[in-house]
Amino acid sequence: MTNVSARPTQTWALRGVLSWVKPQQQNVYQSGLLMSVIRTLSASESNEQRDREKARLEREYHKSDQRLDHLITNHDQSLKDVMQIFGEVSGRLADARKRIRTIKENLAACKRLLHCKRDELKERWLEGVEHKHVMLLLEQIDEVRDVGERVGSYVNKKHYLHATQLLVTSLNRLGTDLKMVEALKDVNLDLHARKEKLHEVLIDELHKHLYQRWTKEVLALRRQGSGRDSTNTLTRAGSDRASLGTGKADKARKNLLEMITTPVKGLAEGESLEEDVGGVDPEANTQHFMAILVECLALLGKLPDAVETIKRRMQKELGVIIQRTTQQIVEYHPPAPPDDPPPSVLAYLKADSREAKLLQELLQVVFEQFRLIVAAHQSVLVSMRASSDKHGIELHLYSMPDVWSKVQAALQVMLSEYLDLSQLGTTQQQAPAAFTETATDLSSFFTKKRTPRIKNYSLFKFEASYHAMTMNSYLMEQAAGQAGVDLFDFSIADGNNSSTTGGGNNKGKNMNDKTLVCPASPHNITAIFNPLQTFIREIEDALACSPGTHCTLHVFITDYIKDAFLAQLHVETAGRLEQATKALDQWRTCRDPTLLKTMKVNRPLLQSSISVWQSIEELRWLLGALPLYADHFVSMMCNTLMNYRETCQAAYRGITQPDSEDKRIISATWAKDEDISRFLRDLPNWRVLQAGVSSECTIGGDENPEEVGERNRKEAEILTGNLGDQLIPQHEILADPAQLRTLGHLQESLEWFGSCIVKFATSLPVKSTSSGIMVSGEVPPVSDASVQTLTSLAKDFEELAHTCLLVLHLEVRLHCFFYLLPVARGGGFASGLDSQEPDNDVLKLIKDLATIDEALTNTLHPRKCKYIFEGLGPLIANILMTSVVHIRRINENGIKKMCRNIFSIQQQLTNITMTRELALDQARQYYEMLYHNPDEILNGIMNRGKQFAELEYINALQLLHRSSPGLSQESLHTSLQRLSEILGDIGVTV
Question: Where is the Exocyst complex component Sec8 middle helical bundle domain (predicted)?
C-alpha cells in the first residue's frame, strides 16, 4: 500500500508530460473512464462495490504507468536535448541582462556629459544647419542655370509633362528661396518667356490632336476600305487586330480605333499622370497625350485661358477641317477631262455619278473626323475636370452639347455651299409654281392652236427668306469672320512630316472662291440625305433629345428640303412635263435602238412618254434617296400622271373629235359605245390579244376556220347594222394615214407606259398605320391610297390605249364601207365594154389598205396589226354580197368586173395578212352564180346543196330579174316560191 500511495505526485507529473505526446483520442478516452469511475464510486452504496471499482482503477493505473514508462524510455534522448537547449537559452538570457545593465550605465554617463556641454553643441548644430542650407541654395542655383536647356530638350522630344514640372518648380524656387539672388534675374526672365512660349506650344499641340491629325489618316483608311459601304470605316479597318503591325500606318489605324472604341476615363483619386521618357513615341496614345497637355496647362495656371481659346477657335478649326479634306479629295481625284460633256441639270439624281460619289466620300470623311473630334473633346473635358479638381482651379467648361452645336453649324455652312442656297430666292422667283395645274392645252401638235389662258403670277415669294437664305448667309459670314486670314493656311502633321495646302496667296479669298468637290446644286441633297440622317441620329442620341424634338441640323435639312428642294423639284418637273408635251419635237417618236433596248421595247415610242417615264423613274429613285418624303414624291408622280393623262386624252380628242360639233368620227363614236365596245372585247381575238398570244396559234389549236368565219361574219353584221344603208361622208373617217400612225404610236406608248406604272405600283411596299416610314436606301413603304391612285391612273392609260386600238380596228372596216358602198350604186355593171380594170373605188380601197398597212406595220406590234386586219375578208364579202340590192342591172361584163374587184381586194388582203381569204372566194362564187339563169341556180341548189343564205339567193334572183326586162313579175314570184320550197326541203332533210 505504501508504494501505491507514494506515487501519486510522480504519476500526475508524468501524466502532464504525456498530455503533450499522447494522441488526443486516448486522452479523451482516459478522461471519460476516470469520470465514469468517480461517478460510480460516488453513487455506490456498499463497500464491496467500492472495492471492485478501486481494484478496477488500480488496474487501469498500472496500465497507464506501464505506458508512461514505455514512453519515457522511447523519448529519453528528446528529453535530454530539451534540457540542454533550455540550459543554453537560460545562459544567453543571463548574458543579455548583463549587457543591458552596462548600456544603461553608459547612457546615464553620456547624459551627464551632454548636460555639461549643451551650449557648445547647440552652436555647432546651428553652424551645420546653416552650412547645409548654403549648399542647398548653391545646388538649386546650379540646377536653375541649366533649366532652360533641359526644358528645351524636353519640349523638342515632346515630353511636355517633364518640361512643365521642371519649369514650374524652377519658377517657384526663383520666386521663393532664390528671390533675392540678383544674378538669377536674367534666368528668371528667360524662364518666364519659356513659360509663355510653352503655353502656346501646348495650345497648338492640343488643337493639333483635337483637329489636325485626323484628315490624312482617315482618308488613307477609307481608301484601304475602298468605300464599300457607308458604315464606319475605322471600325471596319480595326476589326482585324492581327493585322496591326509596327508601321506608322498601323499605329495610326490602332490610334484612331482606340479613340472611338475606348471609353474615356478620368484619373482615380490619388492617381497621377506618368510620362515615359524611355524612347517611346509620346503621341502613340492620343488620349494619354492630351491628358498630359491638359495637366501641363493646369500646372502652368493657363487652364482657364486654354478653355476660352478652345471655345473661340472651335468653329474655325472645324471649317478648316472641311476645307482640308476637300483639298485632299480633289487632289486624289483629278477633275474629269474637258472632253467629257457637262452634267445635265438632274445628273445628280444618279447615284453612280462621279459628283455624287465625291460628295458622299467628302461627307463620310468629314463625319468620321467629327466623330473623332467629339471623342477627343470628351477626353479633354474629362482631363480638364480631373486637373481642375486636383489643383483646385475654378473653371467654366464648355459642354458636349456646345461641341455638337459647333459641329452642326460647320456642317450647315458646308451644306449651304454645296446646296447652292445663294441662288434659292432667284430660282424660285423666276419660275411659277404651277405644277399641280391641269394641263388642258397640251395637244397643240394634234389640234388647232388655241389662245392660252392667262395665268396670274405672284410678284413676291418669301418661302425661303429666313432659314434658307438669311440663316445661311449669317453662318457663312460667321465662318468667314472666324477663319480670318488663316482659313486656307493649314498643315497636316504626321510624325515629323507635314504638308501644307494654300498659303499667303489665299488670304484674300472669300467664301465663294472655296474649292468644291462638285458643282453646287440643290440636287446634291439626294446624294447625302441618308448619310446625313444617320449622322443626325447620332447627334440626337448624343444630345439625348426627347421624342418629338430634333437638333438644329435636322431642322436645317428639313426646312431646306421643304422650302427649297421640293419647290425647285416641282418647278423642274413641271417644266420637263410641259416641254415633253407642248414642244413639237417632243411628240415625235423615239427610234434610238439603244434607248428602246433599255426600255425593253421593240417598237418606236412617243418621245413624250419616254420623257415622262424618265421623270417618274427619277422620282422613284428619290423615294430611296429621300425616304422621309416618299408620300410626297408619290403624290408628285400622281400629279404628273394626271397631267400627262389629260395630255394624252387631249391628243386623242384632237384626232377623233374635230372642232366642228356637227361632224363626227364614226370609229371613235362606236369605240365609245358601250355595247359595241363590250361586244368587240368579248370576242376571242381580243382576249387572245390581251393575253399576248398569237391569234394564229389559237385558231389553229382551239378554233376551226368555220368558227373564225362565223365570228367575223357576226362582227360584220353588227357593224353593218349600226351603219345602216347610208353612204359614209369623208369627214366621218380618218383619211389621213399620219393620223392613224399617230394613233398607233399613242396606243403603243400608252400601253407600255401603263404597264410600267402598274409594275411600279405593285412593287411599292404599303405602309401600315403603325409601322411608320423606314429611313433606308431602299424604297420605303407608302400609303395604300397612293398605290391605289397610281394603279387607277395606270388603268386609265391602258384603257385609252385599248380605245386607240379599237378605233384603228373599226377605222379600217369603215374605210371598206366608205369605198365599197358606192361601187354598187355607180351603175356600171351593164356596160357593153369588157373592162379589164377594177372599179376606181376598189383601186382606192386597195391603195388605202396598203397605205394603212405600211403606216401601222412600223408602228404596232405584229399581233396588233393582225388583230386590226383579221376579219376584213368576211366584212368585204358581206359588203359586196349585200350590195347586190343596189345594182340596177348586171350583165356578163359587169359580173367579170365585180369578180376582178373581188380578186384584186383578195390579192391585197393576202399580201397584208399572209392568209387566203376564203370569204372572198365565196363572194366571187356568189357573183359567178349570176352567170346562170334562175332555173339553173335553183337546180344547182338541189344538186349541190345550199351555199349561201336565203336572203342572198333572193337578192341574186331579184338582180337577174331586173337585168332581164322581158321577164314578168310572175316568173320572179315563181322562182322565189320554188326557192323557198327547195330551201325548206333541204332544211327538213338536214
Answer: 282-531
Rounded CA separation 482/849 (Å): 80
Q: What are the distances in angstroms from CA 75 to CA 18, 68, 575?
A: 11, 10, 123
Q: Is residue 429 domain-resident?
A: no
Q: Is the dihedral of CA 519, 520, 523, 529 positive or negative?
A: positive
- Does residue 479 contact residue 406 with C-beta atoms inside 8 Å? no
Cα dihedral 554→555→561→567 (10° resolution):
180
Predicted confidence (pLDDT) at residue 344 exceeds the cutoff of 90: no
Number of domains in the chain: 2
The SS3 of residue 500 is strand
Residue 497's SS3 state is: strand
Q: Among 47, 74, 101, which residue terminates a domain?
A: 74
Label residue 905 exposed, middle or buried (CB < 10 Å: 0-12, 13-18, 19+). Answer: buried
3-state secondary structure of 451: coil
Angle (CA) 749 752 757, round 5°: 120
983: CB partners within 8 A, 6+ apart? 941, 946, 950, 953
Beta pairing partners, 499: 492
> Cell 482651379 sits at which residue?
393
Between the alpha carbon of residue 694 and those of residues 697, 712, 788, the distances in Å are 6, 17, 32
Q: CA 237 to CA 227: how far, in whole Å?
A: 11
Q: So what's the pLDDT on residue 583?
A: 54
Residue 27: which domain range? 2-74
* Closest C-alpha to 526, from 425, 616, 431, 628: 628
SS3 content of the chain, % helix, strand, coil (to 5): 75, 0, 25
DSSP-assigned letter for residue 21: T
What is the pTM for the complete model shown?
0.69
In a domain, 346, yes or no: no
The pLDDT score that the predictor gives to residue 381 is: 93
Return the closest-CA partner of residue 960 out of 874, 889, 897: 889
Report CA-CA distances (Å) from 128 to 113, 125, 136.
Answer: 21, 5, 12
In whole angstroms, give the CA distance from residue 754 to residue 759. Answer: 9
The closest alpha carbon to 657, from 642, 667, 644, 645, belongs to 667
For 95-162, the DSSP string reads: HHHHHHHHHHHHHHHHHHHHHHSHHHHHHHHHHHHHHHHHHHHHHHHHHHHTHHHHHHHHHHTT-HHH
Q: Tell me whether residue 334 is in a domain.
A: no
Say how many C-beta atoms besides its own lie within 10 A of residue 247's C-beta: 9
Per-residue pLDDT tens digits for 88-142: 999 999 999 999 999 999 998 888 888 887 778 787 788 788 777 777 766 666 6
Residue type, 85: I
Distance CA 516, CA 608 (A): 36
Length of the chain: 990
311 inside domain:
no
How far apart CA 656 and CA 632 sit, in angstroms, is: 36
Contact indicator for 699, 870 with CB cutoff of 8 Å: no
pLDDT at 493: 36
Query: Phi and psi dihedrals of 493, rounded to 5?
Result: -95, 135
Could you give the CA distance from residue 840 to residue 268 in angstroms, rounded to a whole number? Answer: 113
3-state secondary structure 888-955: CCCCHHHHHHHHHHHHHHHHHHHHHHCCCCHHHHHHHHHHHHHHCCHHHHHHHHHHHCCCCCHHHHHH
Weakest-pLDDT range from 102-106, 165-169, 775-779, 840-844: 775-779
SS3 726: coil
Determine contact, residues 723/733, Cβ cutoff 8 Å: no
Phi, psi of 766 (to 5 degrees): -90, 135
d(CA 398, CA 302): 16
Provide the pLDDT for residue 803. 92
Q: Which of 28, 44, 74 is the last residue of a domain?
A: 74
Dihedral angle computed from the Cα positions of residues 94, 95, 96 and 102, in that order, rounded to the nearest 10 degrees: 120
